Amino acid sequence: MTRPRFHQDDGRPRYVGPATVLFADGREVPVTASLVLRSDPAGVAACEYYEDSTWAGSLTSVTDSGVDLFDAAPGVLRMPDGRESEFMATGGPPHEVGCAGIGPAPFV
Predict the structure, then answer these.
(1) Which of 10-24, 37-51, 67-81 has the lowest mean pLDDT?
(2) Is residue 86 within 8 Å of 102, Cβ to Cβ?
(3) Which of 57, 59, 99, 102 might form a disulfide with 31, Cβ 3.0–4.6 angstroms?
């Protein structure tokens, strides 16, 4: 029996791979990012939050440095190609958080 994929192929752009969280104090923490483009911001014109938040996912620290990803509030997520976007941590333990993007998705 074949197990269904966790993320079904819904056609939405996704990114799974390395990234870096930048803290306001200058720290840079390597993470594994699992991100998806949530919606077309033009489709939710009545809600300002969604107009500015089009991507979401999770971030997992790749080191055991005791870092709390919630301390990056808001944080900046830098992709391997240098593109960046702000995010807010939304839940989870300190080293593995859900995130909601602020601004354009850095992976599309």
Answers:
(1) 37-51
(2) yes
(3) 59
Instruction: Return the closest-CA partner of residue 34 out of 56, 12, 52.
Output: 56
Question: Which pair of tokens denotes residue 19?
Answer: 């990234």
| Per-residue pLDDT at 7 | 54
Give the span between the Cα atoms of 97 and 94, in whole angstroms. 7
| Per-residue model confidence as pLDDT tens digits over 68-93 | 999 888 899 999 999 999 999 999 99
50 membership: H or E segment, kind and range: helix 48-52
The CATH topology of domain 14-102 is Thrombin, subunit H (2.40.10)
Instruction: Enumerate the domain spans of the chain.
Output: 14-102
Rounded Cα distance between 35 and 50, Å, is: 16
